[in-house]
Design goal:
623 residues, 19 helices
Length: 623
């Protein structure tokens, strides 16, 4: 049976909303439904089964919240997806885009308060909403006399019916010590030390990357993210793992068995029952440690038990890479740079010599082939953003057969891509022009580069939150009235999620950011976008390292960044007159480093084209 069209889906959903029983008033129904882009583990990227916003609205971005009432259908998303959402809405006349991040856009809760009748009931699936998000809605709605109701059934799933994709249950495999650098036993020991300090009887681990990290296991249940669906509850004498044990490969089971940790297996669906049992057995002095980023439903399971709601120890452990992980990340970025140099040289040759027509899609396919040649390659870390001209202005554009266009020498080409290697995760963006860029394009590109340089070369106090550094990357754009509507940087996992909390660099604060510390990896990716014309973004991955300063005020210690991405920046796109002496020196040194590290890996006749391109693109700028 073909999927229902958008208008039919909305009509069926509204029928179900009217039929919801609210307390003793069986005919009232709910006046609004909140749909967020999460699964039960509050993941950013979703398997097909959990793409409920995509199903009901057509919008396929990774961030958004939909609100449905009897007469309205609205979607909140940020600047990465404004253009994409408007192009994907189904049907477009039914949906209203709410541009989150703009001053005149009300919050979701504020819109509900202003537009619903008095004493309305708003429904939401408490399994798919974090405690933090639920609390924000509840506080605003209850203050206005409304009721936020946890729904017993997910109404989107009921509309979806038998057409909803099946749950994934792929094989789970080990992440060996040679790549992880720390045993499960040691990670568990550190967690239990923190549990004792906080008088926690149990630690509830729900985020899938945290589960994978603490167990030194990886999976493939969500595309591009090497994670698997499972929960962990850690107690003083056992690690309770909620997963079908048969999903673990023999090597994964053997590795866990040899870790010296008492692992008790439970069915995945038993998490709620078990958590309630743990909560009921807690004494007055005992707490359950559960992050506010976990689902509201799991918080309900804790009942009246005291909770410790800080982010987990694992989240912080995961963000600060150990020496093995640091060296693995650096090695992965070197191999990734080899693949990108091969791709850009191959692409330029075909465009300039008109050997064949290369499109956004065929270019992305070829780039993946170059990456597949590299050691320890597992897969991509996200769908490649291969975008020409106007498509570059769609910040998270993903080319399809319907949108695919040729890459030519007439427009800017923005390529944002990354890979999962078993020793590290990569994410790099380069913008190139294979012809003659306009003066405005060159100015915009130069100002984006200046922002990337400014952040990369910054020296800042230890433990400062990334939010405070965001302005550095924007000041050269702001000074002429330009800006970009996405964050400047995100944390990066070690063969884990390419977007990794709790750290980041953005105009929006990260509430759980513990402060920047040596061993953390973040992206540095300022950009500029002209709607329907072009997009520019430059992205490097940076390692936080100690800075050598003349003074050390209050013995706090100061930090800076070490760039681990090693892909040349196209100097043809730079307006050298806008660059300072320090910026030119920085770029020349960076390019010399790229050349010295990559040249030995591009020897032999099969790499002559790539080596020639690398040597040309890393020539020093002389002003």
């Amino acid at each position: 049976m073909a999927q229902r069209k958008g208008a039919v889906k909305l009509a069926k959903l509204r029928e179900l909303m009217e039929a919801v029983k609210v307390g003793d008033i069986k005919e009232k129904g709910i006046q609004a439904l909140i749909i967020n882009s999460n699964d039960a583990h509050q993941s950013e990227y979703l398997r097909e089964r959990d793409k409920r916003i995509h199903f009901i609205s057509g919008f396929n971005g990774s961030f958004g919240t939909a609100i449905i009432t009897a007469s309205k259908a609205l979607l909140w998303t940020d600047g990465r997806y404004y253009v994409q959402a408007l192009a994907e809405f189904d049907p477009p006349e039914e949906w209203t885009l709410m541009k989150e991040g703009l001053l005149d856009t009300p919050t979701r809760a504020a819109w509900l308060v202003s537009n619903l009748p008095p004493k309305s009931t708003i429904g939401a699936d408490s399994n798919l909403m974090s405690y933090t998000e639920w609390a924000v809605f509840h506080t605003s709605l209850s203050a206005a006399g409304h009721y936020l109701m946890p729904l017993e059934e997910n109404l989107i799933d009921k509309v979806w019916g038998n057409e909803q994709p099946a749950a994934t249950g792929n094989i789970v495999f080990p992440q060996p010590l040679q790549f992880s650098g720390c045993t499960v036993e040691e990670k568990v020991r550190l967690c239990r030390e923190d549990m004792n300090k906080n008088k926690a009887k149990a630690l509830v681990i729900t985020a899938l990357d945290e589960v994978a990290y603490v167990l030194n296991l990886r999976g493939s249940d969500i595309p591009y993210n090497p994670v698997f669906f499972a929960y962990v509850i850690l107690t003083s004498n056992a690690l309770h793992l909620f997963i079908d044990k048969s999903r673990l490969s023999e090597k994964a089971q053997d590795q866990l068995t040899g870790e010296g940790v008492n692992i008790v297996y439970h069915p995945y669906t038993d998490i709620h029952t078990f958590l309630k049992q743990i909560a009921s057995s807690c004494t007055n002095n005992e707490k359950i440690w559960i992050s506010n980023g976990s689902s509201y439903a799991l918080h309900i399971d804790c009942g009246e038990t005291k909770k410790h709601t800080a982010i987990t120890s694992i989240n912080l452990m995961k963000a600060i890479k150990n020496n093995v992980e640091i060296e693995g990340m650096k090695a992965a970025h070197i191999r990734d740079a080899v693949a990108l140099v091969k791709y850009f040289s191959w692409l330029e040759d075909r465009i300039k010599n008109k050997k064949e027509i290369i499109t956004e899609v065929s270019g992305a396919v070829q780039l993946e082939k170059f990456r597949q040649e590299q050691e320890n390659f597992i897969g991509l870390s996200f769908p490649t953003i291969s975008s020409v001209g106007p498509h570059g202005a769609i910040i998270h554009y993903q080319p399809t057969s319907k949108t695919d266009i040729p890459i030519t020498d007439k427009d800017l080409y923005l390529c944002d891509s990354g890979a999962q290697f078993q020793d590290g995760t990569t994410d790099v963006t380069r913008t190139l022009h294979f012809g003659n860029p306009t003066n405005f394009e060159r100015e915009c590109f130069t100002r984006v580069f200046k922002g990337q340089y400014r952040l990369s070369s910054a020296i800042f106090p230890s433990m400062i939150q990334g939010n405070y550094l965001d302005t550095l990357a924007r000041e050269n754009l702001w000074s002429v009235g330009l800006n970009y509507l996405h964050g400047t940087g995100h944390g990066v996992g070690s063969f884990l999620n390419v977007h990794e909390g709790p750290i980041g660099i953005s105009w929006r604060p990260y509430p759980d950011d513990p402060g920047l510390q040596p061993g953390m990896f973040l992206s540095n990716e300022p950009g500029y976008y002209e709607d329907k014309k072009f997009g520019i973004r430059l992205e490097n991955i940076e390692l936080v390292v100690e800075a050598d300063t003349i003074y050390n005020h209050e013995n706090r210690g100061f930090l800076t960044f070490e760039t681990v991405t090693l892909v040349p920046i196209q100097t043809k796109l730079l307006d050298v007159l806008l660059l300072t002496k320090n910026e030119i020196e920085y770029l020349n040194n960076y390019h010399l480093r790229c050349l010295n590290i990559l040249r030995p890996l591009l020897q032999g006749p099969e790499n002559s084209q790539a080596l020639e391109w690398l040597e040309r693109e890393t020539r020093a700028i002389i002003k």
